[in-house]
C-alpha cells in the first residue's frame, strides 16, 4: 500500500507522459535502430574534435614541464629582469597548470546558458573556435617570448574543455536513438581518456618534448580540429533541443529524418510522440535558479554532482601523478618509469574502449557499484603497501599490480558513467543546467586535487589514498540507495522515481 501511495504521489508531482503506455507495444515491434552514416559521422567527429582535444590539453603539459619552466624563467628575466627562486618558479608553473582548470570550471558554468541559447551544435562550434585561438597562442608564445600568451592560451583551452564536458555528452545523447543512447554517452569519456594518451605521446622527448619543439606539442591538436570541424556544416542540431526548447517542430522532424533515414517513419513517429509528451509536461524548469529551487530535481542534481566530483576525488589523477615514483621504486629507471606510466595510460584507454559495449549490455547501477567497490579495495591496498614499501621487497611490484587493477576497474563505471548520467536522469528542459553543474563539480574537484595533493602527500604519506578509498565507498552507497536504473528507459520514466528527494525508494 505504501508503495502504491508513493507512486501515486510521484505521479502527481511529476506526471508520467502518456506515450509510455500508448507506445509500449509499438516499441517492441520497432527494429533496433541502425548506425546511420550521419550519426556515425557526428559521433566520431565531435568525439575526436572535442573530447580528444580536451584530453590532449590535459596530458600534453606534464612531460615537457621542466623545459617549459626553464623557458618561463629565462623569458621573464629577459622581459622584466626578474629572477625567480625555485619556490617562486614552482608557484608560477602551478598557475600555468591550474589556469586550465579555472577555465574549465568557468566553461562548465556557462555551458547551461550556451546550450539553450546557441544550441548543442552551436556549443560544439564555439568550442572549436576557442581551441583554435588557444592553439594560436601556444604556437606563437615562444616566438613572441611571452609567458602571458602561454597562460592566456591555457585559460582559453580550459574554457573550451569545460564547455565540451558540459555539452558534448548531452548533444550525443539527444541525437542518438534510445537503443544507442548509453553507447554514445561514453564517447566523451573515451575521447578524453584517449586524448590524454595522445598528449603524453606527442610530448615525449622523442617526438615534440624538447626545448625547441614543446610549443609544437602544445598546439599539435590543431590537426584534429581542422579535420573534425570541416564537415561540421553537415551536423544536425539536436532534435530535442529544436522541439522542446525552441518549439520548432518542423525543424526537429527534418533533423530526425536526416539522422534515422526517411524509411524509418515508425521510429521517427515514436520519438516525436515522446518529445511531444515531454514538451507538454507540467515541469519545464530550465534556468539555474528554477532547477536549484525545484525540490523534485534536488536528488538527481546531487547524484550528478557527486558522480562528477567523486570521479575526480576517487584518486585517478593522483594515481597517475604518483605512478612514476612507484615504478622507480620497483627498480625502473626514470625514463623507463615514464614509459611505464604511459603504459598505464594506454591500459586506461584500452579498457575505456569497452565502455560502449558495457553500457549497451550492462545496467548502470551494477557497473557503478562494482567499479566503486573494487576501486575502493585497490586504493586501500595501495595505501597499506606504500606505507611499508621500504620494508618488504615485493611490495613495490604489488603496488604496481594494484595501480593497474585500480585503472582497470575504474573504467567499468567510475570513468564513463558520470559523463552521461545527467542525460538519463533529467528531461530536456533542466538537462543543460544539470550537465553544467556536474561538469563544474568535476573541474572544481580536479582543481582541489591538483592544489592540495602534494601538500597532503607530504603530511600524510601513503595514507593520502585513504580519503580516495572512502570516496569510492560513499559513491557505491549513493548508487545502491538512490540511483534508479536508467538503461533502456526514457528520462520521463526515471524522473518520478527520484522526485521525492532522499525519501525516494529506488530499487
Describe, in plain words, how this protein is organized in 3D:
- The chain is mostly helical and about 500 residues long.
- The chain has helices at about 1-15, 20, 25-30, 35-60, 65-80, 85-110, 110-140, 145-175, 180-185, 185-200, 215-220, 220-230, 240-245, 250-260, 265-280, 290-295, 300-315, 315-330, 335-350, 355-360, 365-385, 395-410, 415-425, 430-460, 465-480, 490-495.
Quick recap of the structure?
This protein has 507 residues and is mainly alpha-helical. It is 75% helix and 0% strand. The longest helix has 33 residues, at 428-460.
How would the blueprint of this fold be written?
Layout: H1 2-13, H2 19-22, H3 24-29, H4 37-59, H5 65-80, H6 86-109, H7 111-141, H8 147-175, H9 181-185, H10 187-202, H11 214-219, H12 222-229, H13 239-245, H14 249-260, H15 265-279, H16 288-293, H17 298-313, H18 316-329, H19 334-352, H20 355-361, H21 364-387, H22 395-410, H23 417-425, H24 428-460, H25 466-482, H26 491-494
Helix pairs in contact: 4-7, 4-8, 4-10, 4-12, 5-6, 6-8, 6-24, 7-8, 7-24, 8-23, 8-24, 10-19, 13-14, 13-15, 14-15, 17-23, 17-24, 17-25, 18-19, 18-22, 19-22, 21-22, 21-25, 23-24
